[in-house]
Amino acid sequence: PPPETERPGLMGRLLGRETAPAEPRRELDDAMLEELEDMLIAADMGTETALRVTANIAEGRMGRRIGATELKQALADEITRIMAPVAQPLPLYPRKPQVVLVVGVNGSGKTTTIGKLASQLRAAGKTVVIAACDTFRAAAVEQLQVWGDRAGVPVLVAPQGSDPASLAYDAMVRAESDGADLLLIDTAGRLQNRADLMEELAKIVRVIRKKDETAPHNTLLVLDATTGQNALSQVEAFRRMADVSGLVMTKLDGTARGGVLVALADRYGLPIHAIGVGEQIDDLDAFEPDEFARALVG
Ligand code: GDP
Predict the structure, then answer these.
(1) What is the pTM of this model?
(2) CA 269/CA 74 separation, integer angstroms
(3) CA 107 – ligand 1 centroid, Å
(4) Which candidate, 92, 117, 114, 85, places its Cα nearest to that of 218?
(5) Model pLDDT, residue 191
(6) Is the Cβ–Cβ distance between 129 and 178 less than 8 Å?
């Protein structure tokens, strides 16, 4: 028999349902659905996605009294279903060097993510070279060198203001001659100067293709969870400038829950390779849809 506390109470037996624990229940009607929809939109999930998720939750539940536990579970299930297909670690290829171009607006966490990624790859027995192709930002180059030291990975730099593409070419030569498994290329993120940035990224791609016409093998877009809905326009912008193949979302350790990832997954289906959960070298985690959904639903 079930433990005493789980048995229906007297009233429960009388009414034919369990009374304890008494969770407030509410009839699932149009008003409640609308509130739910607004909540999801406020959580950055985007109108389209919010509408569909709500519709799925309504299915088979309209007019029924529903408690928070069931609602949370249903929501988490819906979100997990959307996110599961995009949870994919960075694919590794036998190609040497596998060239990973890392793009994103300044401050999104590109430099940090490259450092963390280099460290993880090293720990997995891969040899890695980093190229600091954001040659205009001296601070970014310095930061990358610090990360390279921490990760035990060489960082190729060029004098400030020199041509990023020519550094990328030198890095290809070096990575090849070193027999490196991967080359991680940091790039500029001046989104306020799109035409320039597009030209710069295009030139880097052109030049590395002179060494390997299949490169870059991955183009990682780094997004900052704290920018909320802005992530959508950043994806739009960078997809126009580069052949974005996957995402990393940083700063998910703070208050931001990254609801925009649901909208992104729903709209673009781009793989989410990792999430940043802190400023330390080990703070890069695999994206776990289930965990993410539960944290988002709260
Ligand atoms: P970049 O300009 O895109 O290269 O960005 P940086 O890598 O320099 O990161 C900008 C700031 O965000 C730095 O202060 C980082 O320490 C911080 N940062 C990066 N990733 C994370 C993260 O996952 N969590 C937290 N809390 N901070 C992060």
Answers:
(1) 0.92
(2) 22
(3) 6
(4) 92
(5) 85
(6) yes
